[in-house]
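Annual report, structural modelling task.

Input specification for the NAP complex:
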Amino acid sequence: MIVLDGKKIAQEIKKEISEEVKTLIAQGKPAPHLVAILVGNDGASETYVGHKEKDCKEVGFRSTVLRFSDSVSQEELLLEINKLNTDSDVTGLIVQLPLPAHISEEKIIESINPDKDVDGFHPVNVGRMVTGLPTFVSATPDGIIELLKKYSIETSGKNCVVLGRSNIVGRPMANLLSQKAYPGDCTVTVCHSRTRNIKEICAQADIIIAALGSPEFVTADMVKEGAVVIDVGITRVKADNKNGFRLTGDVKFDEVSVKTSYITPVPGGVGPMTRVALLKNTLKAAKLSKSQF
Ligand code: NAP
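The model returned the following structure:
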């Protein structure tokens, strides 16, 4: 069994990105600039945005966080996005989700200039991804694809089960793995809360991608000998330590790992690959931006 070291691979990719940034600057071009919009004081969102700022700094990007109170109106946000869309100093623009209930996430996402949509959530970019065109792929599926590639994991003709059908993880993941490409060429089954016989379906899988948010859902009896298991889930569960919690994946690691050929740990697997994928997209946006080149 090989534990897929997302942390190490992400660190290597970050090094490559910072080299590219140095080259851009040496050519007299500006460092890529990521702008994040953060609404309200949600603890998890604050943490994620903080990580993004730290990552940008590490590779030499500029980053700006624009904070709005919970009471900001949708119109105010749309106006701000409109300004950023045409600001040639902004390379990538992300809006941290979730947003307060009075704001339509769909409307906000659709208002972002697709050329700056480094989260890959805009329907234009989703459409391009689905049809196999070059685009910004959302960070988690892109990070997983990169991890499979780095470890040269065979995917062609494999039965892949994706647990979860969210727009940001399960659905794009299933799509990418079914594409005529490497990694890809899988026969993909997508499972969700209405799926019957999940255990039996998983037990047939050569590759399982677990993205449910249900701690330790995947148990040893659901996993075939030699399967590849990618654990996307991150849930805080109470623990007897100084933090009072620990991060738990969707896979019961101890009992499942011994049956697998490859498995990701939580933390240190998909998480760092997700973070670095956003940096890759931002660098890509900088290279595509006519205003900066
Ligand atoms: P989400 O939007 O809540 O979607 C969860 C999906 O799982 C839904 O499709 C849901 O089915 C399905 N589901 C949940 N419980 C189930 C069960 N018991 N049986 C069958 N299906 C079930 O979540 P998400 O945004 O995709 O994220 C999933 C997990 O990944 C979360 O733990 C999240 O924190 C984590 N995550 C990690 C990273 C990372 O960087 N590592 C990035 C993104 C997300 P229905 O559609 O039928 O409701």
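The pocket of NAP is lined by residues 140, 164-166, 168-170, 191-194, 211-214, 217, 232-235, 270-271, 274 (CB under 6 Å).
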